[in-house]
Amino acid sequence: MCGIVGAIAQRPVAAILLEGLRRLEYRGYDSAGIAVLDPVGTLNRARTLGKVARLSEEVAAQPLPGTLGIAHTRWATHGEPATHNAHPHICRDRCVLVHNGIIENHEILRREQRAAGHRFTSETDTEVVVHALYDELIAGHTLIDAVRQATVRLRGAYALGVIDIQDPDHLVAARQGSPLVIGVGFGEHFIASDVFALLPVTNRFIFLEEGDIAELTRERVRIWDRDGLPVERPVKTSSVAAESAERGEYRHFMLKEIFEQPRAIADTLQGRLVGNRVLPEAFGNQAAELFSAIEAVTIVACGTSYHAALVASYWMEAIAGLPCRVEVASEYRYRAHVVPQHALFVTISQSGETADTLAALRLAKASGYDTTLAICNVPESSLVRESDLVLLTHAGPEIGVASTKAFTTQLVALLLLTAVLGRFQRLDEVGEARVVALLRALPGKIEEVLALDDRIAALAEQFVDKHHTLFLGRGEQYPIAMEGALKLKEISYIHAEAYPAGELKHGPLALIDEDMPVVVVAPNNALLEKLKSNLEEVRARGGQLYVFADFQVPMEEGDGVTVIRLPETDDLIDPVVFTVPLQLLAYHVAVLKGTDVDQPRNLAKSVTVE
Ligand code: G6P
């Protein structure tokens, strides 16, 4: 995951590019670079290891004049974070480029290019693109044609920004599998990985489609589609303010964040998958080696993040074959515990600043865990800084106190972890390919569930006057029932409790009557028949059942039973898919009750005190 930005203007562009990089830093921040073509046609480049701020300091000390330039903030996949691996990459003073994505066939291209005399200065997959481009330029192609030719043989994902050092009047961009937008100005044009990067200079954008190649001059933009045909893409005016965390057209941040989940999941997956495999490097440079020695996993977290951990414990044992223990951080930190041999200690936190989770991490390090890993949404947080390995969820800023997109991206991150750890245990290539395929399909599945919003809003009316609700699930859906109950209680103030359905008869059945709605998470899995028997127990006692079930579940609506049908999915990703309608239910109940959805009473987003 990297961020790219480029500009062709009639004014100096270095400051614009650096501000764009700063806004893209959530996409990667291990190194950064910028290249600007100066008025006499010399290309000047600055690259630094570390954050964009460091690059800015370098450019302040040694300014980069010029009106055409590209810049990049990197999240390393191929080649360690280092200045020589930072973009932009140059080939023989002729062409320069920035890239976001992964070129999967880089090894074979590199071998061919080496044999043809190209000298490589980095370990990146990207560098093969700049050499291929050079070959096309010296064969006499224009820049746009050179990009067209050079990209033909690329496999994988890319968003590219490209300059021919001998041509000060063109900037070329290409998109395949990685996002890229064009910013439209007056006498100037821009490219970037997202609109936020360009909001200080324009609010008019062209969103490139898969396979598009675009040629930008100061005056105009021309675009060709994947078949090489010229196309017109609409210019859209963005109403988003330069401040990134805006509600937009949504009534509440929570609703916006629920609807952002397909994108948040796609962003969290980006750069982490190659072909049918999960990249261990996504967790850090040493990850593969460290993971190969792991024999047990302990996961500690708070609140919603704890629920993600509980789901992961089912995955770890069933898929990876690793014993996995999960505990809330506030308990873990204050009790004596045995450190398993060769164990990985995982913390999960949206903010990375939760006091109990941080304390648990420090305790685990002191008590002899081999390796610590943080799954976190905030790159510069304490948890990230203090852990050996890190997997960032790229959910973007989450403003609503009730966590939504942070949770589903945590689940995605935990599935990635399960796959990578499982590889050293009992998960074979076919198994890993299945995980990868399901993850790739997940954003689309979530879109389908979001289409149920109106149906769930109508359903919410039946909960508004209730004082208690029971949530039931079995297996890995039990933690999802817990998460559904937590959402409802924190924003609607309706008391909600979750139970594993098999425990009903050991107590909660005593509470069942017509005033106690029972929400059930019922995917079509091996436990369905058992779950249905539990539901009959509720029904026989006059309880009102609201069952979230996928299309394959044979269950009739009728007296006391409302069935909400979800799209068909797979056991593996069911926990993520079934979370979304429960979020929507809680949201709509809270709206109907008129509570402060985004800032519910007595709660806070980041709990930095004990
Ligand atoms: C607070 C938030 C929750 C969150 C929990 C843990 O309670 O309101 O949304 O799940 O803290 O926070 P963390 O940032 O560690 O995930």
Automatic annotation (TrEMBL):
GO terms for molecular function: carbohydrate derivative binding; glutamine-fructose-6-phosphate transaminase (isomerizing) activity. It comes from the Bacteria. Residues 2-219 form the Glutamine amidotransferase type-2 domain. It is found in: Cytoplasm. InterPro entries: GATase_2_dom, GFAT, GFAT_N, GlmS/AgaS_SIS, GlmS/FrlB_SIS, Ntn_hydrolases_N, SIS_dom, SIS_dom_sf. It catalyses: D-fructose 6-phosphate + L-glutamine = D-glucosamine 6-phosphate + L-glutamate. CDD domains: GFAT, SIS_GlmS_GlmD_1, SIS_GlmS_GlmD_2. The active site is at 2 (nucleophile), 605 (for fru-6p isomerization activity). GO terms for cellular component: cytosol. The keyword Endoplasmic reticulum does not apply. Its EC number is 2.6.1.16. PROSITE patterns: GATASE_TYPE_2, SIS. Residues 287-429, 459-600 form the SIS domain. GO terms for biological process: amino sugar biosynthetic process; carbohydrate metabolic process; fructose 6-phosphate metabolic process; protein N-linked glycosylation; UDP-N-acetylglucosamine metabolic process. Its main location: cytoplasm. SUPFAM superfamilies: N-terminal nucleophile aminohydrolases (Ntn hydrolases) (SSF56235), SIS domain (SSF53697). Homodimer. PANTHER family: GLUCOSAMINE--FRUCTOSE-6-PHOSPHATE AMINOTRANSFERASE, ISOMERIZING, GLUTAMINE--FRUCTOSE-6-PHOSPHATE TRANSAMINASE (ISOMERIZING). Catalyzes the first step in hexosamine metabolism, converting fructose-6P into glucosamine-6P using glutamine as a nitrogen source. This is Glutamine--fructose-6-phosphate aminotransferase [isomerizing]. It comes from Thiocystis violascens (strain ATCC 17096 / DSM 198 / 6111). The gene is glmS.
